[in-house]
């Protein structure tokens, strides 16, 4: 029984590590702000959630008690990551005004940059 539980926990940890790696890589390598939002909010959220769930399973099976701390952190993470991504996206759109990428914003003329944001 413990061998199967250890294998399941290890698989969930590896999946979580993979998602964290993909999210961090996306944050570092994607070209503009709107694309960089997907790395930390999607993949990294799943990665940290998987690691917290693996921790819950470990303490439930190994010590026989359910840890509500990991459950609360997981719920908090899944609730706050989309909200923070939405706030960052709205700030980005407010700054650029037209939803164009950072590369497009750098090519705009000073008159286009000074135009009021709608």
UniProtKB/TrEMBL annotation:
Keywords: Membrane, Transmembrane, Transmembrane helix
InterPro entries named in the record: PhaG_MnhG_YufB
NCBIfam families for the chain: CPA3_mnhG_phaG (TIGR01300), PRK12674.1-5 (NF009316)
GO molecular function: sodium:proton antiporter activity
Pfam families in alphabetical order: PhaG_MnhG_YufB
Protein name: Na(+) H(+) antiporter subunit G
Biased composition annotated in UniProt, kind: Basic and acidic residues: 96-111
Sequence intervals crossing the membrane: 6-31, 43-61, 73-93
Region annotation Disordered: where it falls in the sequence: 96-118
